[in-house]
User: Which sequence fits this backbone?
């Protein structure tokens, strides 16, 4: 048997090192870089990604101080019911203007009101207004969810045109209104 020549040994060794380098590179790229579409571990990064991918849809215009709906109100009620996803039935939808003083820029909210198991429920989503008085709902807008616990009627409480809490209209001891804030909404997403 003839010994291997140094050229053959070097060629085989180079091929093995090249293969090992390729395997290491594959492993690094597979584990070192997250694939597109994977959820981020950082909640702030995930929220920023949702804002970049936000979908805005015009739902109404303000004409001489009155709301003119572009999206039918029954369609909005159905979307609110889907967002609650807990048996809440929405029977009223509206766009509400909130303006603490005449000097403040008004903020508009899309509001859905209804009942779950006989208890008052409401959800409010802030709208974006444009210079032509159009009102847009953004999928990156937060949702304010109000749930009555013993109150016959609850309302949102505001500070500087922003929702900051709730008020129980008839507080008979132990009655309250709970507020939950969710980061985004999928109001117009069909499931």
Assistant:
């Amino acid at each position: 048997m003839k010994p291997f020549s140094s050229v053959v040994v070097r060629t085989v060794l180079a091929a093995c090192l090249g293969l090992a380098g390729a395997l290491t590179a594959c492993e690094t790229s597979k584990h070192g870089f997250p694939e597109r579409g994977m959820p981020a571990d950082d909640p702030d990064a995930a929220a920023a990604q949702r804002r970049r991918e936000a979908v805005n849809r015009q739902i109404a215009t303000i004409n001489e101080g009155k709301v003119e709906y572009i999206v039918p109100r029954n369609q909005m009620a159905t979307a609110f019911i889907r967002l609650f996803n807990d048996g809440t039935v929405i029977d009223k939808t509206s766009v509400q203007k909130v303006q603490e003083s005449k000097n403040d820029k008004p903020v508009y909210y899309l509001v859905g009101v209804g009942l779950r198991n006989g208890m008052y429920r409401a959800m409010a989503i802030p709208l974006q207004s444009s210079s032509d008085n159009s009102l847009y709902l953004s999928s990156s807008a937060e949702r304010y969810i109000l749930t009555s616990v013993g109150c016959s009627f609850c309302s949102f409480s505001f500070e500087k045109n922003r929702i900051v809490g709730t008020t129980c209209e008839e507080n008979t001891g132990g009655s309250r209104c709970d507020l939950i804030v969710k980061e985004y909404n999928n109001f117009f997403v069909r499931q």
User: Anything to note?
Assistant: The first helix runs from residue 6 to 32. The two ends are 72 Å apart (CA to CA).
